[in-house]
Every structure is written in C-alpha cells, then in structure tokens.
Amino acid sequence: MREYIHLAAAAAVVALLASCSPKVAVTAHRGYWNCEEAGYAENSIKSLELAQKNHLWGSEFDVHMTSDLVIVVHHDRDIKGVNIQTHDYADFKDYRLKNGEKLPTLDEYLTQGEKGGTVLVFELKSQIDKAHEDYMVDQSVEALKRHGLFDPKKVIFISFSWNICQRIAALCPGFTNQYLSGNKAPGEVLDGGVNGIDYHYSVFQKNPTWVKEAHDRKMSVNVWTVDNEDDIKEMIGQGVDCITTNEPLKVRKILGGKEKKY
Ligand code: MG
Q: Could you tell me the distance, in angstroms and rounded to a whole number, from the CA of residue 247 to the centre of ligand 1?
C-alpha cells in the first residue's frame, strides 16, 4: 500500500512538471524554405503563406534596401553578382525567385503578413552605413503601421547590426528585439537596450549558462539555425523559447504537445 502511495505521488509530480513545462515556439528560417510542398522558395510570399497555413508560430524573413531606398525581402546582399545596396530596384525587375515570384518589396510581403496566423520574425540586414540603417528601420516601422502589423504579438525584430537593434529599441518599446551575432553575453545585450538574444546553437553549446542568464533577466531566447535532431533536443533541454529551423516539421514532431502555437 505504502509503495502504491509513493508511486501515485511520483506520477502526480511528473504530471505537474509536464503541465508547467514551458512551450517552445518554432520559426521557419527564411520562410518555410525546405518544405517539400510545391511553390517553395526562401523569402517568398508563397512560403510565408505556407507557414501561416501550417500554423507555425513564426516565419523569419530578411530585408535589404536598394540604392533608391526600396526595402526588398531577400537574404543575400547580392543577386546574381549585383549588389542590392548599390543598385536601384528597377535593376532587379527581371529577377525571379525559384518559384517564379518576382523580388518581393516589403510592402508586398506584408500584404501577405496581414493575413496572420504566424508571427513575422523580421530580420533587418546590415546596410552600408548608420544613416541607411536608421532610414531602413524607420521606413520598416512605417510599413508595419500601414499594414496594421505594428503589434508586439504579430512581429518580433532580429538583427546582426547592433546599431539596428538599438534603433529598434528606441522606436519599438514593448517589442521583442533580439540580437543575432552571438558575441555578447545576455547582460551586455540588455545593458545596450536590447531585450533578447537569437544566437546560433553552437553559441549556446559553448556558453551553456546563457539561456538561464537571459531568462533571469526576463529576456527572450531564440536559437538559429538548428536542424540536427540531437542539437534540436539539446536546445529544447537548455530551455530556449524559440527554435528557428530549416526543418520546422521535424522540430514540430520532436516537440509534440510542447509546441507553442501562434
Ligand atoms: Mg535571416
């Protein structure tokens, strides 16, 4: 009888821990980019739509700015050897993504974002100087407002540029604003006015106390770009809030009921 009571108590504790265990969000890296469904292309409008239809918590995308100050959704600075930052938007009018879409402007992309169902994880890429970076942040905020998306529940910001992170901190109080580079400890980031980190998983493997240090400071923790099953499980074990991945369906399967939905 006594043994039975012990077992029942242990089971209750396990059930309680499971119910208290925080859920983990999944974000598709550059959209839903390795998804095998038709119409795939990274940073495409179609890929964002796919993430929304699959009720992924987040869909990450990248922006650059052309020399005539049009903000476009694209990962690399160059398109077929042509630098986006030193050429006009018209120079890319014939360019097509793998799925046939033309190079999306931020406005075109946010028109799909308005349909909702997935947080927009908005990566602002480093620009040629501080003035261009500041202008890009200011115009991005205006675009989000035009589309009804200037809402901390609908958008979070990430950037490798410390200057961009600080500009966002000044203009977007209350929004999640994560630094990407991985070269600053959580306390240092927070002291700079930024409230979250989004580091490559190898950074957390080298600094296994950083997730807890960030959480102790009420900062959010995202991890990029983790695709291998053992690494995914290690990051879940470290307690990250969000996993950005090229393999969203694999992470979803590993998380099961622990997946945080939008
Ligand atoms: Mg990115």
A: 15
Centre of ligand 1 to C-alpha 29, Å, is 7
Neighbours of 48 (CB within 10 A): 27
pLDDT digits (tens, 9 = 90+) for 112-145: 999 999 999 999 999 999 999 999 999 999 999 9
In tens, the pLDDT along 138-196 reads 999 999 999 999 999 999 999 999 999 999 999 999 999 999 999 999 999 999 999 99
Ligand 1 centroid vs 21 CA: distance in angstroms? 28
Find the 60 Cα to ligand 1 centroid distance in Å.
6
For 43, residues 6+ apart whose C-beta sits below 8 A from its C-beta are 30, 31, 33, 61, 62, 73, 74, 75, 97, 104
Determine, yes or no, domain membership for 2. Answer: no
Token pair recorded at residue 38: 């038709």
197 in Cβ contact with 215 (< 8 Å): no
102 CB-near residues (< 8 Å, 6+ apart)? 93, 95, 96
CA distance 262 to 116: 9
Q: Is residue 261 part of a domain?
A: no
> How close are the terminal C-alpha atoms of the chain, in Å?
45
CATH number at residue 128: 3.20.20.190
Q: Is 5 within the bounds of a domain?
A: no
Using the mean position of ligand 1's atoms as its centre, give its distance from the Cα of residue 62 in Å: 5
Residue 231's domain comprises: 11-255
Q: Look at residue 24 and tell me if it is in a domain.
A: yes
Q: How many domains does the chain have?
A: 1
- What is the whole-number distance in angstroms between the Cα of residue 5 and the centre of ligand 1? 52
Ligand 1 centre to CA of 78 (Å) is 15
